[in-house]
Design a protein that fits this description.
Blueprint (H helix, E strand, L loop, with lengths): L1 H31 L1 E2 L2 E2 L16 H34 L11 E3 L5 H7 L15 E3 L4 E7 L1 H18 L4 E7 L1 H14 L4 E7 H8 L18 H4 L6 E5 L3 E3 L3 H5 L11 E5 L23 E9 H6 L2 H16 L6 H11 L4 E4 L5 E2 L18 E3 L13 H12 L19 H11 L8 H6 L6 E2 L16 E8 L5 H8 L4 E7 L1 H12 L2 H4 L4 E7 L7 H10 L5 E4 L4 E3 L3 H11 L7 E5 L1 E3 L11 H10 L3 E2 L14 H6 L4 E3 L8 E5 L15 H11 L3 E4 L5 E3 L6 H8 L1 H22 L4 H9 L1
Parallel strand pairs: 5-6, 5-8, 6-7, 10-12, 13-14, 16-17, 16-19, 17-18, 21-26, 22-27
Antiparallel strand pairs: 1-2, 3-4, 8-11, 9-14, 10-11, 15-18, 19-25, 20-27, 21-25, 22-23, 24-26
Helix pairs in contact: 1-2, 4-5, 10-11
């Protein structure tokens, strides 16, 4: 660092020499050319020997000055050359390697620090510009628990990834719910130079459960106190963030502030931007002790190694125990205890400029912190009202937040050039699989989709499920895109049991869905519906991937494999649970078929019984599903027999059979090679038959397909010849794979296909 400062002083001195020496020389010469207030020409042509003013001494003086001018010009030329060489080398040679460093606080200078009321010690430029190595890993810790916080933290991570230029290591203190959601999200996000480690928040509860807390964050709002104990012992420093933070700059700028810590400073905090700790918000308001306005803990810089040496654990515990004797509980969770410790030990804190935590709470004074958009570094939505908080500039802040909320996360999968990445087995396997594909193959895009990793956010909304005591519960499984969203309320009215849905959406559509769901009384009253977002990527609708995601995340022993545009009969949920017992599904390989019908009417008086359905079938109001366009798909169900059946009956597999079935949760997955329209269910039923599942039709069950506009994929199938050719190719390859896997028994599928 000292070398950099010396280099800059040399650079400045050389620059001044280049600029001022010629100027001073010319001023001197020009002034010396005046005698008696009249100019004297320096041109040799005008300096005639016969002039009365001309003398031998003045001639010698002029010649001496001209020689000196030429010497100065030559010196300037050499200096300019040295300066250009120094600029091209840059400061990296001071570090003994070729890794580039860059200043993290250029453009802020002393003026912004003074405006924020920060005393940063040395006010020289060299003291204010610590560097962060290009490939230095930045460590970030976040406490995250529950479904809502798991959703909020994604927006924070997006804002950090958008601006970052360094590798990142996230340390997530998470409960079981958040870990399941975020582990899947980051695994499928596959962002280069990002590492994730999880720490079990539930194991830490005993460390802080003795502290009564009135804050809405609950027990998890106290866990930042135990980070010195929780995080790895070899981790020296970390940035700690709340989930309701949005970054408007590179987080490396904040990481660089660690270099400014002096003496016993171990906590970097921004002053609280409300009067909370002044105790004047209302009558008898009695906050915890704090230094002045106190500090906000939404953004913390922790020097972990020094905190451990200071016995931080003992320090905060003794302080909390003493204050709780009179305060009884915390109002602002860990923030109250941090402030009480700082009140007793003010030397611990390094006060960060306020733009590192612009707080949008109800009583905020944050408007005094910024004058321009460029001042903003971190926005903190620390009000329970979040985006609805009152602030003069809230619309600007809200738009900035929404930018990252709806930003396509796939665009953040960018490499950090020049920085080595840790080996990722999943990424390497994916690249190997893709490299084996022939890009000149006309069906390349179809084949590629099979290996595409779609970013997946499980349990996008709150989910609760109480297992049935008799172990007969059934989950309805389906998938959908934005154009089928209107079916959700109707399905929830028809099916009271648990539901697992995979939704294929963009980031912006996911937020539209969230607003739709939160505005629906029907959907908000149902907590046993798992909504799993699979983010859009590629040109095909990955129908079987979606089904697999929904299947994989059910909590019941059985599942009803349906489609989103079908409404189950009223009472089907209870009927299926009884059928599971009756047909001993737990101990036999059975697929229970729910007969499918359809209507062409958008408004239908839904039949409440089998007798009413048969009447509507006879009247032409209902039809057996796809009887007029794809008879083979459901013909083996034997609707003629179903009309009079009173007991379950067995049917045999036939070519192109694709019924909707109830199976155990351990049934095989759908084949991902089939995307868009065509053969996606047919292949799955064929696999069930190959594994010797018995197909049994339920006599008193039914479902009805509701009309809708044709999907984009069926339109492509009908209009694009190459699409149909590729589907046929994939179908043949699937049948060959079946023969290799199941041997002689699978030959019937090839025979049946040739005969159909």
């Amino acid at each position: 660092m000292l070398g950099i400062c010396r280099g800059r002083r040399k650079f400045l001195a050389a620059s001044l020499t280049v600029l001022f020496v010629p100027a001073i020389t010319w001023i001197y010469l020009f002034a010396g050319s005046f005698e008696d207030g009249k100019p004297v020409s320096l041109s040799p042509l005008e300096s005639q020997p016969h002039s009365p003013r001309y003398t031998a001494s003045s001639q010698r003086e002029r010649e001496s000055l001209e020689v000196r001018m030429r010497e100065v010009e030559e010196e300037n030329r050499v200096l300019r050359k040295q300066l250009s060489l120094a600029q091209s080398r840059g400061p990296s040679h001071h570090h003994g390697n070729h890794s580039k460093t860059y200043s993290m606080e250029e453009g802020t200078g002393d003026s912004e620090s003074l405006r924020a009321g920060i005393v940063a010690g040395n006010s020289s430029e060299c003291g204010q510009q610590p560097a962060v190595e290009k490939c230095e890993t930045i460590h970030v810790a976040i406490v995250c628990a529950g479904y809502n916080a798991s959703r909020d933290v994604v927006t924070l991570v997006k804002s950090v990834l958008f601006h970052r230029r360094n590798p990142l290591h996230f340390h997530l203190i998470a409960d079981a719910i958040a870990k399941q959601i975020l582990a899947t999200l980051f695994q499928t996000w596959m962002v280069p130079a990002v590492r994730i480690d999880f720490y079990d928040a539930d194991e830490l509860k005993s460390e802080v459960s003795w502290i009564p807390n009135k804050h809405y964050s609950g027990i998890y709002g106290l866990m930042k106190l135990v980070l010195t104990k929780t995080l790895p012992s070899n981790l020296e420093r970390v940035i700690v963030l709340d989930t309701d933070i949005t970054f408007a700059t590179d987080i490396a700028e904040l990481w660089a502030v660690f270099h400014k810590f002096k003496g016993q400073q171990v906590l970097g905090l921004v002053e609280n931007q409300s009067d909370w700790y002044l105790g004047n918000l209302w009558k008898n308001h009695r906050p915890w002790p704090a230094l002045g306005r106190g500090y906000n803990t939404g953004v913390i810089l922790l020097l972990l190694d020094k905190l451990r040496k200071m016995k931080w654990e003992q320090m905060w515990r003794l302080t909390a125990e003493r204050e709780l004797m009179s305060m009884l509980s915390t109002s602002l969770a860990d923030q109250d205890i941090f402030n009480a410790v700082i009140k007793q030990n003010p030397f611990l804190v390094y006060q960060l400029p306020c733009f590192w935590n612009v707080q949008l709470s109800d009583h905020t004074r944050s408007e005094q912190c910024y004058r321009d958009v460029s001042d903003l570094k971190v926005i903190h939505w620390n009000s329970p009202k979040k985006l609805r908080v009152k602030n003069k500039h809230v619309e600007f802040f809200r738009n900035l937040y929404l930018t990252f909320l709806e930003y396509d996360g796939n665009l953040l999968r960018r490499e950090l050039f020049g920085c080595p990445s840790e080996a990722d087995i999943n990424s390497e396997n994916l690249q190997k699989q893709l490299s084996e594909l022939d890009e000149d193959d006309l069906c390349y895009e179809f084949r590629r989709e099979r290996f595409t990793v779609h970013r997946t956010h499980l349990y996008f909304l709150h989910y609760e499920y109480e297992p049935a005591s008799d172990n007969t519960d059934v989950t309805l499984v389906a998938q959908l895109s934005m154009d089928r969203l209107q079916m959700l309320e109707a399905i929830c009215k028809h099916w009271e049991g648990p539901i697992s849905l995979a939704l294929y959406l963009s980031d912006a559509e996911a937020q539209q869905f969230l607003r739709y769901a939160q505005g629906s009384e029907v959907l908000m009253s149902r907590h046993n519906v798992g909504y799993h977002i699979v983010y859009k990527e590629g040109q095909f609708y990955p129908v079987n991937l979606l089904r697999n995601v929904a299947m994989k995340h059910i909590s019941t022993p059985y599942m009803f494999l349906s489609d989103i545009d079908f409404l189950p009969m009223y009472g089907l949920y209870e009927y299926l649970r009884k059928s599971v017992i009756q047909l001993d599904l737990a101990n036999t390989k059975k697929a229970l078929i729910v007969p499918a019908f359809e209507t062409l009417r958008y408004r239908l008086s839904f039949p409440k019984s089998k007798a009413e359905l048969l009447s509507m079938l006879d009247m032409g109001t209902l039809f057996t599903f796809r009887y007029h366009v794809w008879t083979k798909g459901h013909a083996p169900t034997n609707f003629a027999k179903w009309r009079t059946a009173t007991t379950p009956y067995r049917v045999e597999w036939e070519a192109d059979f694709e019924p909707y079935v109830v199976v155990r949760k351990d049934c095989p997955e759908y084949d991902r090679r089939f995307v868009g329209f065509g053969w996606n269910k047919v292949a799955h039923i064929m696999e069930l038959d190959a594994q010797e599942y018995e197909f049994t039709v339920l006599p008193n069950a039914y479902m009805i397909h509701m009309p809708h506009a044709p999907s984009f994929d069926i339109t492509k199938f009908r209009s694009n010849k190459q699409y149909r050719i590729c589907l046929k190719t994939l179908k043949e390859e699937f049948q060959q794979d079946m023969s290799r896997h199941y041997g002689f028994a699978a030959l019937k599928y090839l025979t049946a296909e040739n005969n159909s």
